[in-house]
């Protein structure tokens, strides 16, 4: 297999995996997890428990 053909194939696989992840909302779920929340797959929203535990209440 020639080197340019292999590079094109690798780029196409990476793009395909990115599109699949974007389609299923993995980018939003990842952002939610990085903020310390839990992603609700059924409703498609992020539950940030850190906001519910504020010191005033």
Explain this structure to me?
The protein is mainly α. The protein has one domain. Helices cover 60% and strands 11% of the residues. It contains three helices and two strands; from the N terminus they run ααββα. A two-stranded antiparallel sheet has the order 1-2. The longest helix has 21 residues. It is elongated. The protein starts with a helix and ends in a 5-residue tail after the last helix. The model has no long low-confidence stretch (mean pLDDT 81).
Task: Summarize the amount of helix as a percent range.
Answer: 55-70%
Percent of residues in β-strands: 5-15%
Order of helices and strands: HHEEH
Q: Average pLDDT value?
A: 81
- For the record, give the distance between the C-alpha atoms at the N and C termini, rounded to a whole number: 65 Å
Quick gist of this model?
The protein is mostly helical and 57 residues long.
List keywords for this structure.
3 helices; 57 residues; mainly alpha; two-stranded antiparallel ribbon
Secondary-structure map:
Elements: H1 3-23, H2 26-34, E1 38-40, E2 45-47, H3 49-52
Antiparallel strand pairs: 1-2
């Amino acid at each position: 297999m020639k080197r340019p053909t292999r590079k094109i194939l690798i780029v196409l696989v990476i793009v395909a995996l990115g599109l699949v992840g974007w389609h299923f909302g993995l980018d939003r779920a990842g952002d939610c997890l990085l903020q310390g929340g839990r992603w609700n797959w059924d409703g498609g929203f992020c539950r940030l428990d850190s906001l519910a535990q504020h010191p005033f209440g």
